[in-house]
Design goal:
The protein is an alpha+beta fold and 620 residues long. It is built from twelve helices and 23 strands.
């Protein structure tokens, strides 16, 4: 999915947390030979929780790790010595030692003397807490967190730009990360708001695809609530749901950040709880591996069958946080493990869990991207899960998932961990179509101008739609993707800049097809997971507009979500939008809401409104 999202990573070195514990790693071994297991696993349990629909109002506490030194059992084998430490080792995998320089001892895995050894030591120092002061309704983010600025898309004139091309987006991190801010008493930073990720956080009741189609397409046209003269066009995709016997076996390699910054309760402890939930869903055909990185990287759990639940849970329980962050070596080791255990025709995925403080060490940004791209081409994709507060490098994590053909989610609670790793595991892990692109053609007889709401970093050039070499997004089993266009009908005042007068060519006349009562045509192009030649099909959207009150429940709720995101993101093109109107619309369009996601959204808007009224807040 390597579209032009963000041109660079944001890398900052770790502000060393106040800790007195050492790093983990109870059992590290060399990557094993690949397993020869094959078969299928069932779809993850949906786990309807109609009785547990209350909002996630409890703030996560920041726990202090216990000052216990880890017990190390030989043999231990890993790669790279911890920085700022001297390491020694003996041939044959003997336990090594690590001595801190200048009073700083970094627990880690050292390599030296022709063998591998594990070092232990105390980590000390200070880590400044991060605070966010809301001024004028927008949070000023401390330097510990970073969000890339992407300008809001403007209206474009149909005469000059009749085609709008973009890639699907399956990320949801922006919504859950924004929820974290709101629940801690602060408005999210404007740059943290990505409208498409708010829309796609929620499930919509789109119909299942027709036979032999990878996904269905649903459209609906309604009035724009923030501008009565404009229309909103909702486009919804739903991936084909795979039956239990159709879901291939999984080769999952979890790459876990165990640096000192991951010690608090909302980071590594939450990672461990989330993975424990996933373990309950594994079958014998699945394999799960655990690679960790801090000052050094190591293989904690080699590819292990899902039937060995106790072994997997034991490896998770032994993980502790400590050390500095060097993610580059960890990613290389994780891909190596995934490659050796690769399941032909199966799901092969590296899943990175981190607070985003991702220092690639001696690896350049370009080298890291090329590594992830090359592994993507072999069928090993990368998913990124963000955790915690204070170090979130949103732009880095989003970019990594983008390059790795995976998704980016932010986990702020155990309920969110269950949503990402259990409820929606099929949607994010079992790919049913890749390089999915949409190209919308507007009828110039009926449309004056338009804009795609959100998806600013998913835009593609017009020619990219037909270029099978151009990477785009993936859709998983039963995954739902939603997009909204704001359309200015012909004859209404347009916010778009007028077309530039040309010297050598005049305005082209509309074709005969423009006379049809068609507002626009949605063209879709996609590839099957194991193919490199795309297929295309089209859906016509008739010129038929519904009053918003008469629109479907899903459309009304999606409009409410977009309206709230536009307001919190500081949109200058939706001046009539308000949090109060969005809240009222959402509350009237809850639908079945089996997991309480929509009711929680309404509660979050109440918080956002109170924070906006107060004009000032703080978040840790």
């Amino acid at each position: 999915m390597s579209m032009s999202r963000h041109s660079s990573f944001t890398h900052t070195h770790l502000g060393i947390a106040v800790l007195s514990s050492c790093i983990l790693l109870a059992t590290c071994t060399r990557p094993p030979a690949p397993h020869d297991e094959s078969g299928h696993i069932g779809t993850p349990h949906d786990g309807a929780e109609a009785g547990k629909a209350q909002a996630r109002d409890t703030e996560l506490s920041r726990a202090t790790p216990s000052p216990a030194s880890p017990t190390v059992d030989p043999p231990h084998e890993a790669k790279a010595a911890a920085p700022s430490a001297t390491s020694s080792g003996t041939t044959g995998g003997s336990v090594g030692s690590s001595t801190g320089a200048g009073g700083l001892g970094l627990s880690g895995i050292g390599e030296g003397g022709g063998g591998y050894g594990v070092g232990s030591g105390r980590l000390s120092g200070s880590h400044a807490s991060k605070r966010y002061a809301v001024r004028g309704g927008s949070a000023a983010v401390a330097s510990g967190e970073s969000y890339a600025h992407v300008g809001e898309s403007s209206f474009v004139d149909v005469k000059t730009t009749p085609l709008s091309t973009f890639s699907v987006d399956v990320d949801t991190a922006s919504y859950s990360n924004s929820r974290r801010f709101l629940q801690s008493g602060s408005l999210p930073p404007r740059d943290a708001i990505r409208v498409e990720e708010w829309l796609n956080y929620f499930a919509y009741d789109y119909p299942k695809p027709a036979a032999n189609q990878p996904f269905s397409v649903t459209t609906e046209v309604t009035a724009a609530p923030w501008n009565a003269q404009h229309r909103l066009v909702r486009i919804g995709l739903r991936g084909v749901p795979l039956a239990a016997e159709e879901i291939p076996a999984r080769n999952l390699v979890f790459l876990l950040d165990v640096s000192g910054s991951m010690a608090s309760a909302d980071k590594l402890p939450l990672v461990k709880k989330g993975l424990a939930l996933l373990v309950d869903q594994l079958r014998a055909e699945d394999t799960l591996s655990i690679v960790v990185y801090a000052g050094a990287s190591g293989l904690v759990l080699p590819p292990t069958s899902g039937r060995e639940r106790g072994k997997i849970l034991g490896a998770l329980e032994n993980l502790e946080a400590g050390g500095s962050t060097n993610g580059g070596d960890g990613i290389r080791l994780a891909y190596s493990v995934a490659s050796r255990a690769k399941k032909t025709g199966g799901i092969n995925r590296v899943i990175l869990a981190t607070d985003g403080d991702f220092n690639v060490g001696t690896t350049s940004e370009g080298e890291l991207e090329r590594l992830i791209e090359s592994e993507r081409k072999t069928g090993v994709f990368l998913t990124v899960l963000g955790f915690g507060t204070g170090n979130v490098k949103d732009s880095t994590m989003e970019k990594l998932a983008d390059v790795g053909n995976g998704n980016y989610a932010y986990v702020d609670s155990e309920l969110e961990a269950k949503k990402v790793l259990v409820r929606e595991a099929g949607a994010t892990l079992a790919t049913i179509a890749k390089d999915v692109k949409l190209q919308v053609e507007f009828n110039p007889r009926l449309v004056q101008s338009y804009r795609l709401i959100g998806y600013e970093n998913r835009r593609l050039a017009t020619q990219d739609f037909d270029d099978d070499k151009k990477d785009a997004g993936e859709i998983g089993s039963d995954h739902r993707v939603t997009a909204l266009y704001e359309v200015v009908p012909r004859g209404e005042p347009s916010p778009a800049s007028p077309p530039t007068a040309l010297k050598y060519q005049g305005e082209g006349a509309p074709s005969a097809a423009a006379a049809a009562p068609e507002l626009l045509t949605v063209n879709l192009r996609y590839k099957k997971p194991n193919e490199e030649t795309s297929s295309k099909f089209s859906v016509v959207v008739p010129d038929r507009v519904l009053a918003l009150a008469a629109a479907s429940v899903d459309t009304r709720f999606a409009v409410a979500v977009a309206e709230a995101a536009l307001v919190l993101g500081g949109s200058t093109l939706a001046q009539g939008a308000s949090l109060g109107d969005a809240r009222a619309r959402a509350a009237a369009a809850l639908g079945s809401d089996p997991h309480g996601d929509r009711r929680e959204f309404v509660a979050l808007l109440d918080r956002a409104r109170s924070l906006t009224d107060a004009g000032a807040a703080r978040a840790d």
